[in-house]
Design brief:
alpha+beta; five-stranded antiparallel β-sheet; three-stranded antiparallel β-sheet; 19% helix
């Protein structure tokens, strides 16, 4: 969780989350597929409550029993301010598994996926492909 907190302190990155019950490791590998290009259609900017206690916040976002989000984990997205208008790309191919009827037309490359919070295990899984900017990655 320390690595997550280190990144959350950086002020030149905007942070978002996306709740999903699909395999988060697949998102870390392939990026986040989106039906529409606008970020707000697929993700929510991290609120102040998240910064205070990411695990508790993620548990509260899981959703009610029997809903799509019941087993949801939070995918954490970090987009450098300089990239915010250019991060989303057109889809080159359709993913094998897709959970909506609409075809994904766009995706956010995995270099913008900081990782995810596994709500069941109460841990943050860091994405080794995350790039803070062109000159720095972990």
């Amino acid at each position: 969780m320390n690595l997550l907190n280190d990144f959350l302190e950086k002020k030149d990155i905007r942070y978002f989350y996306h709740v999903t019950n699909t395999d988060c490791n697949e998102i870390l590998e392939n990026g986040l597929y989106m039906v529409e290009k606008e970020l707000y259609t697929t993700m929510i900017e991290l609120p102040d409550e998240f910064y205070k206690d990411p695990i508790s916040y993620s548990k509260g976002e899981k959703g009610m029993k029997g809903t799509y989000r019941e087993n949801g984990n939070l995918v954490i997205i970090g987009i450098a301010n300089e990239d915010i208008n250019y991060a989303v790309r057109k889809v080159d191919y359709i993913p094998d598994e897709w959970n909506l009827d609409d075809r994904p037309n766009y995706y956010l490359p995995n270099e913008y996926i900081l990782g995810y919070i596994d709500s069941d295990e109460e841990e943050f899984i860091f994405n080794e492909e995350f790039r803070y900017n062109d000159t720095y990655s972990i």
